[in-house]
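Sequence and fold
=================
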Amino acid sequence: MFLLMIIGLLNAFTPQKTLEDFQDVYLVMELMDANLCQVIQMDLDHERMSYLLYQMLCGIKHLHSAGIIHRDLKPSNIVVKADCTLKILDFGLARTAGTGFMMTPYVVTRYYRAPEVILGMGYKENVDIWSVGCIMAELIRGGVLFPGTDHIDQWNKIIQQLGTPSQDFMCRLQPTVRSYVENRPRFTGYSFDILFADCMFPSDSREHQGLQASVARDLLSKMLVVDPERRISVDEALMHPYINVWYDEGEVNAPAPGPYDHSVDEREHSVEEWKELIYEEVKKYENKDNQMTNAMQNLSDGATNDTAPKEGVATGSPGQNRHR
């Protein structure tokens, strides 16, 4: 089963015929039109921006329901079609939450890295919400919100704009990190009215009361919270007035994918053992694809109507081609 907002793996194959010759793997995924890096350069109205964010949050909720934290959400890892449908991809840094697998701080492209990751505090699912907040800010401003040159500069960029965090937050830091953070100059930060002034937003929607600059700014202020204990959750974000205009129970609470079996990742394998495991997995996909091809061929041979279906054209309106 494919989840609507997560990229689907259609097939995997190798041109090599034996394990001994095995060198290459080809992964076949759904064809999309662009990634968010290109979309950021466009003038989006509130409907499209809100709908893109809704889909991101749905996809994240599905991942979290399976116990998976993406850990590397950024514009280049989110792809879209002309009809405004969206998919999350690239799970190379994703990890299963609540397992013994080490949750390393070397995750997430720097600009979208949450404070708790930068400061080595450990993290949970809402680390992905910070990244969504950074992406939303970039959609509004047309540029990166926290363009740090290294992890120290990244922290400085965050506190200069959002302010030095509370003493309660400081008390949860490791001693050496806390000493550094407390000895930095204190910043009061800027209000979100200044960081995201009305002039940065498109015109308020005439159709949906919740789709206006003040409501979008409120959502940003709840996602871009330095203290993860006070940051909005994915479920809360999906119910926010800027997002829930698109709320569909069947999409939001679609059956979760089966729990990811991380046992293979946690075992020690030699290169040759990994090669054999990957080869076996690829062959499973090839066999499944061959069975499907044969079944389709049998149906085609028995069909009496050979009229080809007409292709549809996407209109680009958000939500118009949604599956309900």
About this structure: The first strand starts at residue 9 and ends at 13. The two ends are 15 Å apart (CA to CA). The domain at 30-252 is CATH 1.10.510.10 (Transferase(Phosphotransferase); domain 1).
